[in-house]
């Protein structure tokens, strides 16, 4: 009676209620964890873009399909040879080719982002090796049924990630800082794989054959690089021949150096060639069909398999999402909406399917996914004031010969002012379609048949080493870290001016060195037993970039070198800039034709008749302008 309540005693229940309210709001309509929010949006986007994905077909699409076919199947067979040894002959060439073709075909038909290329990856090979050892040496349980249950568990975990919008809580905060490191890492990995192939040749063949393997490897890479510059050979050959040489450079080089070892005295050397299967049946002698009786395991292993299933989920989720992000970054000018959540559902489905079939699962590949986008990139000339284009690269005027933009004539008592011609600019675009992933996947699937398997057996492993080098070169040549590294080696007087005085040259160099050092650390991790977890390290870099690096580098410096990887803008944008961008996006969305899946008229025109020199001549530059009959590059 008469006891007074302290004010603090009245505050605790509302605080608790407020916490519960905040938590529940996340699951309500519009909240980050609202079930199926991103899935509904992705399915809507898929319906809008699907028809237009089948309306673009040209020679660049065919060339891209051929290029991606070689860069996908040949490295895949290398992983198959590793898996054959690491999994006790449970998996081999036929399983890897079957998985790559089947999963790629499913994604080319049903995914929301068909630019992403799928295949069996190195980190999963390491994980499969560890699982095989645990199953056979420690627990004495069959490997394939345990793997099947792990992949089935991984499927429903993928579904949960998509249902509760995991992309918004993770990948939305990825910046180019992490994406560029991941891209550089893959370049280093492919150069490293080339050296491993040459080392394997050194161990397995006589010295004279090894010397030729060095010539074959570097010859494959250098010939492909040389032919890829064919568009600059004017006036040599005709335009059609130059275009064909440039677009099929890798394929021509590979086929040429597959044939060279059969010429003259080279045919007497003991060349090491890809090991293949000549029958359509599982590699393991204990299996007759592509089906795993996954129920024939002890009951406890059905639940224990949840643990490796969770590891596979983390690996596949981050690997696939980062692959999708890197192949749609700003430099490719991708315009159609994607669908990360829907693709994760599709990835979970193909993962479970592979487990039941007894084949290794496929997921997003690096650098094949961004190389696919690179091979489809072309340049479109648009008006400089086109609101539906990317930020301008370089603009130029094209005044008529008889007048200047500011000239006037007194042809009558009235003064007539000539209308200045519109300024033009070149913007990058990618042919966003489904034909190239469909064709390359269908071609790969053909190679599960014995006659095509026999053809693969003619390929020397030295050609594979050369292809690895060429893929590393292709990936490295478009990485923004490379030009900034060259700036480190250049005298300040030779460098272009910075955008403003608040951007420090030394800070930019420090940022670049940080990316290179972190790439080296992550590459070292990929050589250890912790290799399957390296995508997690990439994700750890996201909070490091957002919460730590902004205390080391200035705001303007970070705005100069970095930006969001999968959405417009930069982390350091002011509130006014964010509001202006949201307003501009709203106007842009309102002006688009919904029937084209958000594809503007200027983009649709860009997918049609594009001047060949503009289309391919700037494939390796960051900016450029059309000048007369050719292209003038501007160094950034």
From TrEMBL:
Spans through the membrane: 60-84, 96-119, 139-161, 211-233, 245-264, 301-318, 339-359, 521-548
Where is the sequence biased in composition, kind Low complexity?
Answer: 390-421
Domain Bicarbonate transporter-like transmembrane, chain residue ranges per copy: 35-205, 207-382, 418-562
Q: Where is this region: Disordered?
A: 384-426, 569-636
Its subcellular locations are: Membrane
GO terms of molecular function: borate efflux transmembrane transporter activity; solute:inorganic anion antiporter activity
The residue ranges flagged as biased composition, category Basic and acidic residues, are 569-618
InterPro entries, A to Z: HCO3_transpt-like_TM_dom, HCO3_transpt_euk
- Entry's Gene Ontology cellular component terms: fungal-type vacuole; plasma membrane
Membrane topology summary: Multi-pass membrane protein
The record, for Pfam families, names: HCO3_cotransp (PF00955)
Write out the entry's keywords from A to Z.
Membrane, Transmembrane, Transmembrane helix
Q: What's a BP term from Gene Ontology annotated to this protein?
A: monoatomic ion homeostasis
Name the predominant localization: membrane
Protein name according to UniProt: HCO3 transporter family-domain-containing protein
Organism in which the protein naturally occurs: Pseudoneurospora amorphoporcata
